[in-house]
Amino acid sequence: MELLIDVQVDEAFSELVNTADLQEVMAATLRRHSEELGEVVEITLRITDDVEMQALNQAYRGVDAATDVLSFAAHETGADEPPLDLPAELAAELARHWGDIVIAYPYAARQAAQFGNSIPAELRLLAIHGTLHLLGYDHAAPDEEAAMWAEQEAIL
Predict the structure, then answer these.
(1) How many Å apart are CA 113 and CA 119, to the nearest integer?
(2) What is the model's pTM?
(3) CA–CA separation, 108 and 50 (whole Å)
(4) Dihedral through CA 30, CA 71, CA 49, CA 14, nearest 10?
């Protein structure tokens, strides 16, 4: 399986983020689920500020506040979707893009301090968390939360 993990960091945080570290934990997460994925998997991770995160949270979830991480899945896991009538090259490109993850660096830094965590460790946790959401994990119900938290711990 080929993993294409593009980490984009706002200039304000570029010196503070170890992109290779985040790519590594996201790749570890994806490798644990390789049987569910295609030959090529592409994910984009963006590290931004609270203002952009609040705008995204408002636009996509109707919540007018910043949050730590948002995931935007390109595929509905488990859905039996009819094939689109697209040229083969475009269909293959769409199939390999699993989605986008956005992390608010300032929010993550505050959260790290609150929980006595280092910022790099918090960013790793959020990158794993976001990747698991792209793979279909959720934490809306107690049993889902337990499964997702256990998976996060296993990867960490």
Answers:
(1) 8
(2) 0.88
(3) 10
(4) 20
